[in-house]
């Protein structure tokens, strides 16, 4: 009986925290709009998280909404995976993006060797992985608002962004794990097999049980919303699978998004599992519905909670380190992407005239150097494994927030200048 008052008190604390998070989710887009779009919504969410978090006012605590935040992270990467054209990652642009990321990672580790010289090479690898990531999940709403997702810039950013998220996640699973390298690779292989099973079993049932197809189709609307519940189940299953194998749940969420998109594309190709439909229309409908669910409270909660984890005192005590980290991100991630896109554009123009406006390498590089969600994930793993001090993690997350604030704004400005110059 003595547990009841404690449980009630914990519940009331969680409700209060959720109120402040919900308030921040409402205020952030209003604040971004009031500032004329110069500040991205995700940056406003981070800033408000800092304000209400334990390091400033202390009116909200991240642990009270940890599950909602984790689901927000999962939905963020599911949407990123859903937007990815898997075939593009296999073609020339994909190979170029993987090669570029490998160069970025090598440069990042070299840059990280000096500040982590007393902590060992694994600490340098952890810091390097954070420096060479791309915040594709955070960039998606910005690209959508600017109508760039289907442009040359958008396609390049999507390819570099997919690799800039997937590469660090896989590297974290292999290099920052407490297991040996061989054991980590085996675990990744087992995870891949588990993903195939998670997908294959429902697909087998779908093909062989017409009644199941009818039930899902009839339950797609109204209070049942069975299709969305199946998508949420897919996300939860793959996040749980990743967690069981000791991997970052981001990997499972990203895989869920890729699989979901493959399912939609299969419908367009006349898959016997469900008949031929308009894949673009279905993808647009699903994306709109998922955005509505994800961006109502789940994803905003993730960014607000990320802001709560930033120690303002640690950041204020190291302003030079903050600036150096932002510059390091721009150099180790942005410069190689700029060079790769510039080389690709020159080679393409030499072979044949480019149709439409080419992607400005500067714009693509600035978008690609925008990092945050992966930085948060990497710093959490590094701090838990004793590879990074909490103060450095706070400054690193703050540097990621600065890139989200500054780099897309510069990219938008340069993009407008290029468009104006071609008229």
Describe the overall structure.
- The protein has 423 residues and is mainly alpha-helical.
- It has helices at 3-34, 41-52, 66-83, 86-90, 92-113, 121-131, 136-145, 152-175, 181-208, 210-218, 226-244, 249-268, 279-308, 312-317, 319-351, 361-368, 373-384, 390-422.
- Mean pLDDT is 82; it is low at 271-276 and 418-423.
Order of helices and strands: HHHHHHHHHHHHHHHHHH
- Structural class per helix/strand content? mainly alpha
Summarize the amount of helix as a percent range.
over 70%
Beta content comes to: under 5%
Major β-sheet annotation: none
Brief characterization of the structure:
The protein has helices at residues 3-34, 41-52, 66-83, 86-90, 92-113, 121-131, 136-145, 152-175, 181-208, 210-218, 226-244, 249-268, 279-308, 312-317, 319-351, 361-368, 373-384, 390-422. The relative contact order is 0.15.
Give keywords:
mainly alpha; globular; disordered C terminus; 423 residues; 18 helices
Give the secondary structure arrangement, pairings included.
Blueprint: H1 3-34, H2 41-52, H3 66-83, H4 86-90, H5 92-113, H6 121-131, H7 136-145, H8 152-175, H9 181-208, H10 210-218, H11 226-244, H12 249-268, H13 279-308, H14 312-317, H15 319-351, H16 361-368, H17 373-384, H18 390-422
Helix pairs in contact: 1-2, 1-13, 2-13, 3-7, 3-12, 3-13, 5-6, 5-8, 5-15, 6-8, 6-17, 8-9, 8-16, 9-11, 11-12, 12-13, 15-16, 15-18, 16-18, 17-18
